[in-house]
Design brief:
Shape: globular
Radius of gyration: 18 Å
Largest sheet: 7 strands, parallel
Strand content: 5-15%
Number of strands: 7
Strand order of the largest sheet: 3-2-1-4-5-6-7
Distance between the termini: 39 Å
Order of helices and strands: EHEEHEHEHEHHHEH
Number of helices: 8
Length: 248
Amino acid sequence: MKSILITGCSSGFGLEIAKHFLDRDWAVIATMRSPRADVLPPSDRLHVVSLDVTDANSIRRAVEAAGPIDVLVNNAGVGLLNALEGVPMETARGVFETNTLGVIAMTQAVLPEMRKRMGGTIINVSSSTTLKPLPLLSVYTASKAAVNAFTESLSLELAPFNIGVHLVVPGRAPGTPFSENARRERMNGGVPEAYKDFAQGVFGKMQDTSAITRPMDVAEAVWRAATDPTCPLRLAAGADALALVGRE
């Protein structure tokens, strides 16, 4: 039985990915900061594990609890929507700790076993903000652009060990808790006064839902990356992300 470890499974993309693989008879290690088994259907192939990707000891415990895995999905992430002047450096560092360094740390933790076994797959979830620059997302976009570059370089150094590396690039998913959390900064009045009018215009454009990404789009892209040996390094997920890739 194939096994997959997914970070950030309490909601949104991670939750849908976990359900998708459970439905297809995989063993799923679903990790969350605060574990809740009730968000997923009961299964003897499901193992819910506590994980904070910014904590080295938490990573070590989670990887030990999971045992050998076939696929790692680095999905855990935090959003941030604000003008750069309104972002404290502590907040910026926190975004990179989760979105970038968390991906690197989790990958580093599972590689020794995959390398010895000469097989495995690493899938990193990025963002379409790296395809089309958007205002008020400079810190968040930088954290995801770093993941893109990391993934592309890593794929070359792991190829001799038969370890596949892929990048799934979702578009905007307004219905997920992730998007709500990203907007919390402006809801709490975090946007600097000088940017208020500009920000209101940006927020208005974000209400357009004509082309968006559904969690299922991301789950299907991750499934292809995990199971299709002909899969390219980068996969867009969602109608809006696919449109952006088509314009490149």
